[in-house]
Amino acid sequence: MAQEAVGRPLPPDLRAWWLYADGARFGPHVGDSGWLIPPGFVPYSIAEALKIRRLWMDVAREIGPLEQLEAFVDAENNRPAGTACHTWLPAWMPVATNHGGGNLFVDLRGGPQYGCVMEFYRDAGALAEPAWNDVAAMLYDIADRLTENEAQLDQAGLLYWQ
């Protein structure tokens, strides 16, 4: 479903993660699971990821003239994964939210950093280097940080990063 929507293959580690745990439960507050991904992101389910991806693509289409946007997006979609961009690209698959205009996404463009995890913010785009080389590296980092007691549980049992 997700792979067909994007029109690009999903990395095996992303597929495995979504098959094992399809996101986190959202409640009336931040998230029923707390901030599972440092520094403060909550994983999307596959359905939520596809919905948010469509939303970001709609926002990108509203920003500029269509004829200019199409040429720009085509050029950016052909740049290597891990390359910064101010506008949401169809080759990006969101995987988590901070509930404040920020998303983690997996970059599905080609190149040596295919599958890297980057941050995107509505006001700035994706400007920084990849946060992780891939989803597996992100999950290992979370496990290491939990082992090092870099997170705490609140009284409701929700996870927060220090």
UniProtKB/TrEMBL annotation:
InterPro entries: Knr4/Smi1-like_dom, Knr4/Smi1-like_sf. This is Knr4/Smi1-like domain-containing protein. It comes from the Bacteria. Residues 2-139 form the Knr4/Smi1-like domain. Pfam families: SMI1_KNR4.
